[in-house]
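Running low. Invent one:
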Amino acid sequence: MSGGHGGSEPLGFGVTAGLPRDVLEPLAREAVRLGYGSFWINDSARPGADGLADLGFVATVAPSLGLGVGVMPLDRREPAATAEVVRQLGLPLERLWLGVGSGGSDRPMPLVRDGVGELRRLLPGARIMIAALGPRMCRLAGEVGDGVLLNWAVPERIRWARERIAEGAAAAGRSGSDVAAWAYVRAAVGPDARERVRAEAERYARTPAYGTAMRAMDARFDRIGVAGTDLPGQLEPYRAALDGVVVRALPAAVALDEFLAIARAAAG
């Protein structure tokens, strides 16, 4: 996958972990038909909501899709345990993006630096993405990551983050184009679509890490994500600022039709 600028990758489609298999299978197959290039699943501590296990299922029912998980907190999922699960599931490393973050660690920088190095040693060929919000983690992503996963950021903040990523890459003797910049962009359709995105943004804003980042970019919740009609048009500023965009579905209910409506609307 390219690290160049400007939406060079097909859209990815993203869902929460733990979806029923009778939803996940037809959704993944429809994502292929609609032209999505990758399928992304978040990681969760909830029982029965394992992003890697769900990706293993998607890999079998939609073998042409790239596979992304993001993000796995390194303070909860140690690299050795993650690598073992990846091997047990038979996930194809050449199709795999592993998104990692610091979780609630009080030592985020060394945890991520060491974790990325260990994952790269244990899973050669997998691409390691670092979830980044602030300037230090963006620079670290530029220094050691194969990619960076930016969340809850408006396009202006994404461009700011890419400058910090390029600084880290340059300090490590790399090119900024060596680091692919992706983001989850929350997406909703239906009569309450904008309210759904805003409510989710407000929930994240109440957490220390995301709240700080959102205040730093003076984000207005009605500018984050895409909602309602003309999702492709709303996605364009994100695609222009990124190498890849993951359409992260926010359905009104956990139902196949709800996810399909978002996938189809965003694909145009």
Remarks:
- The mean pLDDT is 92.
- DSSP finds ten helices and nine strands in the chain.
